[in-house]
UniProtKB/TrEMBL annotation:
Highest taxon, organism lineage: Eukaryota
Domain Rab-GAP TBC: 83-321
Segments for region (Disordered): 393-424, 445-470
Skewed-composition ranges (Polar residues): 393-408, 461-470
Gene Ontology MF terms: GTPase activator activity; small GTPase binding
Protein name as annotated: Rab-GAP TBC domain-containing protein
Pfam families documented for this protein: RabGAP-TBC
Record-annotated membrane-spanning stretches: none
PANTHER family named in the record: GTPASE ACTIVATING PROTEIN AND CENTROSOME-ASSOCIATED, ISOFORM B, RAB GTPASE-ACTIVATING PROTEIN 1-LIKE
């Protein structure tokens, strides 16, 4: 007998499972054709089917895996290019993220953390196995805590702070939005209840692992994908590796959103130099890169409608880290460029970027385009420098700012820059940045020379790449 819920959300979820025609090979609900467009989910997969020989070779590679070995990483890249068999994907991710070493070298205990979390949840009357009632209870508790001082607690009682309640509540809310058509999170079946409980535990444990960040929206999508391919504790350590290591997403999930906005501006510069015509068209329509790059990056492209493509993208991200995210973004824009250039309204362009069409995101289309799109680390470093330079110049042009004297702690005005000194002829500043595969020439347009030197003469830039000579 189905558990009945008084929540409208619960009724909708149960109805979705009831209307489902079954599930595809990745666990997503098959629905009637009239509902598929609303869900923006395709079930026509085109990824290459694994053969016995390839599976055997990959198993052998994983058995003697050494993350620091150049040979191992070259071989695993070859398998990723060909296509990772779904049954081995979780093991490949564990090897690339080196989660076993991370767990062994860390004093944090996942199981101990769950016990510590369960105590305040029990005191609140909340269970991860009843998310809908948990949301109602946490809402009520948060309102009570915000309305006045908390009643005194006995010394032996476990204290749950207002911050803890807010985190529990936000995680519980986001569980309802994370892949609501996947069998592990959909409806009120035993599998879905256990899946939601696992996701709740992984996210609350990470909030304890890194209290400075706690929980940010978007993490639930990443953790859910990890749980689809890994055991619960392995998924937790994989989440830690992704969110903590500089190679991947370190700093992107921050409440200030400074770093993710910075990376979106870096992508904006990369688009400017790689696709100047498309860049200018996007600029003319007033579409900001922040509006589509941030959702792409923060959910690791899980909004793509073809799940085999999502997993292939994740394979490359696990291998290359943040660099791969720039490659994926450029590949998508490369495929969308003809149709985007024909659009004359931002109301058409932005939805297309946020909900990439199925014909573009199919595995047989997107993945070859991804491997055909090269982005080097030195190139991202160069774009990063341009963003920092623009930020610096923007702050300089805002005028004198007040700062604090470290000795007297009194505000003081910043020293005003000397006035620009005009010269009889325009100056052109050229900078060569060397990289592994070539060099980047950044030539500034003629500008008035100022006492600030080349950094003060920043205007529109032009990027040229030439082969590196030895």
């Amino acid at each position: 007998m189905r558990r009945r819920s008084s929540s409208n959300s619960g009724k909708c979820t149960s109805r979705r499972r009831h209307d489902s025609l079954g599930f595809d090979e990745f666990g997503f609900a098959l629905s009637k054709k009239k509902d598929q467009k609303l869900q923006h989910r395709s079930h026509d997969y085109s990824y290459p089917q694994p053969n016995t020989v390839r599976v055997k070779e990959l198993c052998e590679l994983l058995s003697y895996w050494n993350g620091s070995s150049f040979i191992c990483r070259n071989q695993i890249e070859r398998f990723i290019r060909i296509g990772i068999p779904p049954a081995l994907r979780g093991q490949v991710w564990k090897c690339l993220l080196n989660t076993d070493t991370l767990r062994e070298n860390c004093s944090f205990s996942y199981q101990k953390c769950l016990k510590e979390i369960r105590e305040p949840l029990v005191d609140l009357g909340v269970s991860e196995y009843s998310i809908l009632s948990a949301i109602a209870t946490l809402n009520e508790t948060e309102n009570e805590m915000g309305s006045g001082p908390s009643p005194p607690q006995p010394p032996e009682a476990s204290v749950c702070s207002c911050g803890d309640v807010a985190i529990f509540r936000q995680i519980a809310l986001d569980l309802q939005r994370s892949f609501p058509t996947h069998r592990s999170l959909m409806g009120d079946s035993a599998e879905a209840i256990e899946g939601q409980a696992k996701l709740f535990r992984v996210l609350t444990a990470y909030a304890r692992y890194n209290p400075h960040i706690g929980y940010c929206q978007g993490m639930s999508y990443i953790a859910a994908v990890l749980l689809m391919n890994l055991t619960e504790e392995d998924a937790f350590w994989a989440l830690v590796a992704l969110l903590e290591r500089p190679k991947y997403l370190s700093g992107l999930f921050d409440h200030s959103m400074d770093k993710i906005q910075h990376q979106a501006r870096v992508f904006h510069q990369l688009l400017k130099h790689r696709k100047p015509l498309l860049y200018q068209h996007i600029e003319d329509l007033g579409v900001s890169s922040l509006h589509f790059v941030m959702p792409w990056f923060l959910t690791l492209f899980t909004s793509l409608p073809c799940w085999d493509s999502v997993l292939a993208v994740w394979d490359v991200i696990m291998l290359q880290g943040l660099l791969a995210m720039f490659r994926v973004g450029l590949a998508i824009l490369e495929l969308l460029e003809p149709r985007l250039l024909q659009m004359a309204d931002d109301g058409l362009m932005l939805p297309t970027l946020l909900r990439v069409p199925v014909e573009v995101s199919q595995h047989c289309v997107l993945v070859p385009a991804l491997w055909g799109t090269e982005v080097q680390e030195w190139e991202i470093d160069c774009m990063n420098g341009l963003v920092l330079e623009e930020t610096s110049v923007g702050q300089h042009q805002q005028g004198p700012e007040t700062s604090s004297n470290p000795l007297t702690n009194e505000p003081r005005k910043a020293r005003a820059s000397p006035p620009a000194r005009p010269v009889s002829h325009p100056s052109v500043w050229t900078l060569w940045l060397w990289g592994k595969a070539g060099r980047v020439k950044i030539s500034e347009k003629p500008a008035m020379r100022t006492s600030g030197g080349p950094s003060a003469c920043v205007s529109r830039t032009r990027l040229q790449i030439s082969p590196r000579s030895h």
